[in-house]
Design goal:
This protein has helices at about 5, 20-30, 55-65, 85-90, 100-105, 120-130, 160-165, 185, 190-200, 215-220, 260-275, 280-285, 315-325, 345-350, 365-375, 385-395, 420-430, and strands at about 15, 40, 55, 70-75, 95, 110-115, 135-140, 155, 170-175, 205-210, 225-230, 235, 240-245, 245-250, 295-300, 305-310, 330-335, 355-360, 380-385, 405. By secondary structure, it is an alpha/beta fold. It has 3 domains: about 10-95, NAD(P)-binding Rossmann-like Domain (Rossmann fold); about 100-290, Mur-like, catalytic domain (UDP-N-acetylmuramoyl-L-alanine:D-glutamate ligase), CATH 3.40.1190.10; about 295-430, Protein-Tyrosine Phosphatase, Chain A. Helix 3 (about 55-65) packs parallel to helix 4 (about 85-90), helix 6 (about 120-130) crosses helix 11 and helix 13 runs parallel beside helix 14.
Length: about 425
């Protein structure tokens, strides 16, 4: 029996977490089940007053673990592997998500789901841009639970957090790539991969990247796979997007920097073909796609120095891709954030032989730089106490014609609320930075 079918005004229901999705879920429930008053459970008190019964801290954790609620709608940022989750299951509590509630409410809706360690937001946004009438939802666009009933197709970006407990199949899915990430939430590398790849298992058709080694290792021979980055389909060769043997799109044809964005375009066009959309017509409108904030976004140009916000970068692989977007130019790379113990080898490979200097941020910037210098011994490294100090150092060290690149290869938590706040702060400081002497 579906969760929605069980809900009544007297159901003991908790919203576990009250961020963007939690707030949208409350609005959804107010319409779907008039009279139902959920209880908010949160680790810390809300920043603003909320007109709901609220349990925080130990009181909230105890209520969950003892089965006080019949149904709990968990926000994605709360790990599925916290001890309260197993306690709730033992107590008979039904645990669900706003994503599952939406699928229950709108079965049969056309949904193309996009996931991947990196590139999923850009790819999902690009597909929605190229697909007439499509609605963008999930991690980008509006929260899925806020999408009203209708017939318009959905392009849905899903994080590994949302994939982990997904119980419904989209019409088709896209996997951009697969690198270790979010190990604090998933607790292990293999659990992260398993949770993210749950979407591949659910979907009838899977659009997969033939140049991503981990994806090929797991799904080579998968009958329902439709591959991009193959010679026969949409693929990037020599910095040019091809369809089969035919060159179709050059880097100069649109404003998004980096070969990896051509790969995102290849994924988008392959997905559109799977959904029965004409990819040739879609390609003509790609030049009007301007990209997303905090993803290789030029935020200032002063004295010949280009300041680039790539705050979305939380892995060494994404920082390496960002460096590749500025081949041939001197780069001052601002590196560091929350320590997740990631392997910096891909970034070291990207730096070797390049004119790159590193400005490190707490917490793990110095450790990453030390690991990099074991591979690149002559690498120039300047420790910085915070982003303000890094901007000052970057303005003094970066030559005219160079790039100051915030691509931290680490999350922002502990110093900023999220990558958006980190990127906005960088942009503000960059616009005030003095030009090179």
């Amino acid at each position: 029996m579906s969760v929605l079918a069980k809900l009544t005004p007297t159901t003991r229901l908790a919203l576990w977490g009250y961020g963007r999705e939690g707030q949208a879920t409350r609005a959804f429930l107010a319409t779907a089940v008039p009279g139902l008053v959920p209880t908010l459970v949160a680790d810390t008190p809300p920043e603003t007053a909320i007109d709901l019964p609220t349990l925080t801290g130990e009181a909230g954790r105890t209520a969950l673990a003892r089965g006080r609620f019949e149904i709990v709608v968990k926000s994605p940022g709360i790990s599925l592997y916290r001890p309260e989750v197993e306690a709730m299951r033992q107590a008979g509590t039904r645990l669900t998500s706003s994503t599952n509630l939406w699928f229950e409410r709108q079965p049969g809706r056309t949904v193309l789901a996009v996931t991947g360690t990196k590139g999923k937001s850009t790819t999902a946004s690009l597909i929605a841009h190229l697909w007439p009438g499509a609605i963008l939802a999930g991690n980008v666009g509006k929260p899925l639970i806020a999408v009203p009933e209708g017939k318009a197709p959905l392009v849905l970006e899903l994080s590994s957090y949302q994939c982990a407990d997904l119980a419904h199949a989209p019409t088709a899915m896209v996997l951009t790539n697969l690198y270790p990430e979010h190990l604090d939430w998933h607790l292990s590398r293999e659990r992260y991969f398993a949770d993210k790849l749950r979407l591949v298992d659910l979907a009838p058709t899977a659009v997969l990247n033939a140049k991503d080694a981990r994806t090929v290792e797991r799904f080579q021979g998968l009958a329902k796979a439709r591959w991009f980055e193959t010679d026969a389909g949409w693929h990037v060769q020599g910095g040019v997007l091809h369809h089969g043997a035919e060159p179709r799109w050059r880097m100069a044809d649109w404003p998004l920097p980096g070969v990896h964005n051509l790969t995102n375009l290849a994924a988008a066009l392959t997905a559109l073909e799977v959904m029965g959309q004409p990819s040739a017509a879609a390609l003509r409108s790609a030049e009007r796609f301007t990209g997303l904030a905090h993803r290789l976004q030029v935020v200032a140009v002063s004295g010949g120095v280009t300041w680039v916000d790539d705050s979305i970068s939380t892995t060494p692989e994404s920082a390496a891709a960002a460096l590749a977007a500025f081949a041939g130019r001197p780069v001052t790379l601002v590196l560091g954030g929350q320590d997740r113990g990631q392997d910096v080898t891909p970034l070291a490979t990207a730096i070797r032989g390049r004119d790159v200097r590193i400005l490190t941020l707490p917490d793990n910037g110095p450790a990453m730089a030390a690991a990099l210098t074991r591979t690149v011994p002559d690498l120039a490294v300047v420790p910085c106490a915070d982003l303000v100090a890094a901007i000052t150092a970057a303005a003094a060290l970066t030559p005219s014609g160079g790039v100051v690149l915030l691509s931290p290869a680490a999350p922002s938590y502990g110093h900023f609320r999220n990558f958006e706040e980190r990127g906005e702060r960088f942009a503000t400081l960059a616009r005030r930075a003095p030009p090179p002497q």
